[in-house]
Write a structure and sequence with these properties.
By secondary structure, the protein is mainly α. The protein contains 12 helices and no strands. The chain has one domain (about 5-275). Helix 8 (about 150-165) runs antiparallel to helix 9. The protein starts with a helix and ends with a helix.
């Protein structure tokens, strides 16, 4: 992997991890379309993957630091009784929404990893992801429930939607935002909750790879390149989060439509190229 490829992948990761267009789908399809000979299951790619996830998670923690600080002091019980109760409730909702993906990801890890090597499958599900976003926009719950009104049942349902993103091509943020919309939460609130539950998922994926990293033979220079890519991914992810939170707030009636059309166009175009060449 060249330095240019590493930077481009880092920008792609930082943007598509938060945009509802599937980072996994793009990571599988783009190298195939550009004929990059990158083995994403090779030991040399592992530190690069870990550092990209670390950069993205750091960006989310930085952007939403006030939320995480409030949750921390609430869990520790050092805020007012009312704030402590509310912050602990929100923290519990995040935990509940995270559990389904953790369980299913653990049970289906080998099967899911087998899908990573198939650009055709990833392109197909990019097309499906576009349809999913349109589905969510058309069938969204009426009204504008605030994020604070989420219940445990809402968290479970949104967490189940997140499980669909185990398939390359289905967006994690897109699926969870759709889950929120179908529960009557607006785009901004759904995106806010989506990004909060993304943080432990991304950090968890990073931590799981660390033991493998300690036993892998890493060529010289890979860690340095990975560190640069992590900074690029983090900056891109922070900018993407800031843009999306403002975008969803300003375009609540149709916010997912452009991403849906993009995924359908990219998925269909990639399928045509992959199958006809």
């Amino acid at each position: 992997m060249t330095s240019l490829q590493a930077i481009l992948i880092a920008v792609l990761q930082g943007a598509t991890e938060l945009f509802p267009v599937s980072s996994l789908g793009h990571a599988v399809v783009l190298p195939a379309l550009l004929h990059w000979s990158i083995d994403q299951r090779a030991p040399a790619f592992l530190p690069f993957l870990v550092m990209l996830h670390l950069g993205t998670a750091t960006a989310l923690l930085t952007y939403f630091w006030r939320d995480w600080w409030s949750l921390a002091i609430g869990v520790l019980g050092i805020s007012s009784p009312h704030q402590t109760q509310e912050n602990r409730r929100v923290f519990l909702l995040i935990v509940i929404a995270t559990i389904p993906a953790v369980i299913l990801g653990f049970l289906l890890e080998k099967f899911v990893r087998g899908l990573f090597g198939s650009p055709v499958i990833a392109a197909s599900f990019l097309l499906v992801n576009g349809c999913l976003l349109l589905f969510g926009e058309r069938l969204r719950g009426r009204g504008h429930r605030p994020l604070s009104s989420l219940t445990m049942l809402d968290a479970v349902i949104i967490g189940c939607w997140q499980c669909t993103a185990l398939i390359p091509g289905i967006s994690r943020s897109g699926a969870t935002i759709v889950g929120g919309l179908l529960r009557g939460v607006d785009h901004e609130g759904s995106a806010h909750f989506s990004f909060l539950i993304a943080t432990p998922i991304i950090l968890g994926a990073t931590v799981l790879e660390v033991p493998k990293l300690l036993h892998a033979e890493i060529p010289a220079g890979v860690f340095e390149l990975s560190a640069i890519a992590a900074v690029v991914a983090g900056i891109t992810a922070y900018a993407s989060t800031a843009f999306l939170m403002r975008y969803f707030r300003q375009h609540d009636s149709w916010a997912l439509n452009p991403f849906a059309y993009y995924c359908m166009a990219i998925g269909a175009g990639a399928l045509a190229v992959l199958l006809l060449t």
